Amino acid sequence: MKAEMIAVGTEILLGDIVNTDAQVISLGLDELGIDLFYQTVVGDNPERLRAVLDIARQRSDLIITTGGLGPTLDDLTRETIAEAFGKQLVLHQPSLRRITAFFDRIGREMTPNNIKQAMLPADCTVLDNDWGTAPGCAFEADGVHVLMLPGPPRECTPLFRTAGMAYLAKLAGGTIVSHNIHIFGLGESEMEDRLHDLMEGARNPTLAPYAKDGECLVRVTAKADTREQAEQLTAPAVRQVCDALGDAVYGVDVGSLEQAAADALTARGLTLSVAESCTGGLLSKRITDIAGASRFYKGGACTYCNEIKMKILGVKKQTLDRYTAVSVQTAEEMARGIAQAYGTDIGIGITGYAGPDGGEDGTPAGTIHIGMYCAGETQVRTICSPRGRETARRDAANHALDLILRAAKKYPKS
Amino acid sequence: MKAEMIAVGTEILLGDIVNTDAQVISLGLDELGIDLFYQTVVGDNPERLRAVLDIARQRSDLIITTGGLGPTLDDLTRETIAEAFGKQLVLHQPSLRRITAFFDRIGREMTPNNIKQAMLPADCTVLDNDWGTAPGCAFEADGVHVLMLPGPPRECTPLFRTAGMAYLAKLAGGTIVSHNIHIFGLGESEMEDRLHDLMEGARNPTLAPYAKDGECLVRVTAKADTREQAEQLTAPAVRQVCDALGDAVYGVDVGSLEQAAADALTARGLTLSVAESCTGGLLSKRITDIAGASRFYKGGACTYCNEIKMKILGVKKQTLDRYTAVSVQTAEEMARGIAQAYGTDIGIGITGYAGPDGGEDGTPAGTIHIGMYCAGETQVRTICSPRGRETARRDAANHALDLILRAAKKYPKS
Questions:
Q1: Per the CB 3.0–4.6 Å rule, which of A239, A350, A407, B224 could disulfide with B230?
Q2: Mean pLDDT of all residues in A320-344
Q3: Residues of chain A by 3-state class (helix, strand, coil), percent to 5
């Protein structure tokens, strides 16, 4: 099956946003064994979209569109595709009810232009959108399969990875199973080096390495007639990858460092608090991204000035004077201080220069100390992440979560 | 001038990398006032690239390609383009000398396959690549301008922004100006309803509405011979949009809610602290995303359990018992408590059910109270954001920033 993607959105052509949907869909098609030959971006312009569709239907068996399904005047994907493929748009009552219910829930009046989001091609397969208002849909016409997805990544990604890929798996025949092996503390090239031999021969299952957000991932994907057969194909490969990467693997299908840390703490009945200076709340935010974090997380303090470090965390004035706020000693006192103030088993203290500026003493931007207090002891990991404020803060939070996860795993499960 | 981009690279179609060159070039073309109508990605396959080129030359005056200029076998952009436009490839001696010198500098032997990077279309304009080995080049044939750039972003970006844009500025003539009007507290469809008449007739300047991250944006863009003329075209449209949307406009060209709030606080010498329950540090994280936040931000507390709300913020036990932790009363006490504990002019207190669960008393998930203490008074805004945990938390942080911004603006600038 030859596929192509068409992203509809003037905001991409203007450079306002990057077409990240394209990567999500490309990766998914690769997992499904569907060849993707073209990606096109076209603006919110019905004539040009129509021309692009006419080119696509000549050369591809599957057209996946993103964007242009919203309520506004310039959202014209549905109408243009329906016309191109001679499909009537009909009101899909269940979708209209979902949209109406959505507006009821948020207590806003639904303006009439929202109704058009429920106008879908006759006899299409509707993909319910649990992340926004515009449903996706799919149909076949003239031997070409068309799949329409909403554009916003927070809607497109989950809808594609669930209902979208399930629909395509049926077209492609059989089913697929993927497992994600999560790795922290190993660079992408070192990981690839270690996996080189395993990856080279791999066809089914395939092994795909990714680097993202300061950590790595290997996705093992197998295709088979049944789910059980696919699972049997992936199992030995997952074991081999874990063996090759050893200690750097922090989990399989665990979602994220914060999820893995949350699971490890919850399973052991341990409690956590965090004190943040340069990360400014990012670590606390990521911990509380996890629903149910209140089972182990008592809270945090963003201590963005020395005064508050002393008052809330009990960091000593002489420590700040002698070693400065960005020091191993301050990180230790922050970690111990928050654990004591909040009464938790584990305390984290983060202090550093996130950038753009470093310290007046010449300490470079990106130098960050991550202290951890646990069972009466403190330890500090110092990192240097000089690639900008956002990356430095992210890396510091990643290392803190890695410290928490490793500390928790030393305890027996309760 | 109608432009289109063609990225050549199987690694983009496989999802290994995101086509970030597209954004860099889109933004640059927008600055130059060159209309970009299409972006296409095609693999390292000469037949498909040739077909894409044949489509492009029919519909565009300018074709910009990225990728496929390297030394390896699958780098075929140069050869395919030369053939498509009937151009001879000739050895460009200065480029060969640059490539040879590059290998000398890094102390590696130049393998013979590198020579082909200096084979360029006859009579083209060569764009010297100071960031890698493959030069860019440009030519005109059959009334179509072609600009070829290397694919790696660390080469493509600087080469495009310097020699590439200089070449294009000469072709384009004229310039464009854009202004972004930032809106909070109005849904996209309601915004468009109010702007409908203004938008429908708009050609120069154009009015483009966007919804992103819980807020909206209208971009007003005008094209003219000079920057001054373009500014004169945008000015009345910006005023009309601001008038139509009234109080919901929080700034023009201000970047983001957090940046606008940071600027407003800094300009008035006001200080801020925040207490977060369900947002868990997200608001603090967003405030400290702004470099220089320490000028107004003293810090925050994530009080994820009642015990810490009482201990750090002084929330009264009877308030928690009588009204629960998720209540207007608790939000007020959190806001006042953090302002007093941290000694700041403004204090924020956020408490709610981010989801997936709501309250045991039937309060739905997404119900969040945002309290603000300022100048001896407290106020609370209650929102209902039922589209999932992440969106609920984002919306709560947005509303907090909106409250801060409105409060700050009531003070005279210092």
A1: B224
A2: 98
A3: 45, 25, 30
> Distance between CA B115 and CA B100 in Å, rounded?
9
Residue A346, classed as helix, strand or coil, is strand
pLDDT recorded at residue B178: 83
How far apart CA B260 and CA B402 sit, in angstroms, is 9
Taking the C-alpha atoms of residue A293 and residue B357, their distance in angstroms, rounded to an integer, is 12
The pTM score is: 0.78
Are B14 and A26 inside 8 Å of each other by CB? yes
In chain A, whose CA is at the least distance from the CA of B390? A289
Closest approach of chain B CAs to the CA of A390, in angstroms?
Answer: 7
Q: Which amino acid is at A320?
A: L
B283 at interface of A, judged by CB pairs closer than 8 A: yes
Which positions 374-403 of A are in contact with B (Cβ < 8 Å)? 389-390
For A239-268, letters b (16+ CB in 10 Å) and e give ebbbebbeebbbbeebebbbbbbbbbbbeb
CATH topology of domain A175-252: Alpha-Beta Plaits (3.30.70)
Asked whether the predicted pLDDT for residue A320 surpasses 90, the reply is yes
Q: What is the mean pLDDT of chain A?
A: 93
B288 touches chain A (CB under 8 A): yes
Q: CA-to-CA distance for A405 and A390, rounded, in angstroms?
A: 23
Cβ contact A91:A114 at 8 Å: no
CATH topology of domain B2-172: Molybdenum Cofactor Biosythetic Enzyme; Chain A (3.40.980)
CATH superfamily, region B257-409: CinA-like (3.90.950.20)
Q: Which residues of B touch A55 (CB under 8 A)?
A: 55
Query: How many other CB atoms are there within 10 angstroms of residue A386's CB atom?
Result: 13
- Tokens, residue B34: 């060159």
Mean pLDDT for B127-156 is 94
3-state secondary structure of A54: helix
Domain boundaries, chain A: 2-172, 175-252, 257-409
The two tokens of residue B233 are 């075209």
Q: pLDDT band for position B125 (50/70/90)?
A: very high
In the block, tokens 């044939």 appear at B141
Q: What is the 3-state secondary structure of B64-92? A: EEECCCCCCCCCCHHHHHHHHCCCCEEEC
